[in-house]
Design goal:
By secondary structure, the chain is of the alpha+beta class. The chain is about 40% helix and about 15% strand.
Length: about 70
């Protein structure tokens, strides 16, 4: 079986843009939730979860082979 590989596009920029809102939600409510509607192989979600311990993710993707 071929290993699936994916390099998230603009990962650093996405984390940079989302971080202020996530940080604010965590500081105000103790946690934050992000909805990832292009979950795929989870590259962006993984990076966000590594950066924010108090983050919850709801993930969706139409491509069942990518999840």
């Amino acid at each position: 079986m071929q290993e699936l590989r994916h390099i998230p596009v603009a990962l650093d920029r996405c984390i940079e843009l989302l971080s202020p809102s996530i940080e604010r939600a965590i500081s105000m409510r103790g946690s934050a939730t992000v909805i990832d509607v292009t979950l795929g192989l989870g590259g962006h979600t993984r990076a966000l979860l590594e950066k924010f311990a108090d983050l919850k993710i709801i993930g969706f993707d139409r491509d069942l082979s990518a999840i």
